[in-house]
Write a structure and sequence with these properties.
87 residues; mainly alpha
């Protein structure tokens, strides 16, 4: 999805695609650190997923036309996808 999005919206420049992929990975990394910091408690995945509006980030990413907002929403996608995989 991201390579097609970068090609269509940002004129297919390689460094922009690299930034987009890197920011999504950074979001996943920070979420994994955050979950490790929280420790273990019952139903951790469901509680964290509701707090960070899992479904709103891909929706907003699809509507964004500026690179900065796309990077913010991709960070959110990476951040929340770790919780949905974990639960």
């Amino acid at each position: 999805m991201i390579p097609i999005f970068a090609r269509d919206n940002f004129s297919s420049r390689c460094e922009r695609l690299a930034w987009m992929m890197g920011v999504a990975g950074a979001g996943a990394f920070w979420r994994a650190l955050f979950l490790a910091y929280l420790g273990d408690f019952k139903r951790k995945g469901g509680r964290c997923r509701r707090r960070f509006w899992f479904w709103s980030f891909p929706d907003r990413l699809a509507q964004s036309t500026r690179l900065v907002w796309s990077l913010v929403f991709l960070f959110g996608v990476g951040f929340t996808i770790v919780t949905s995989v974990r639960s």
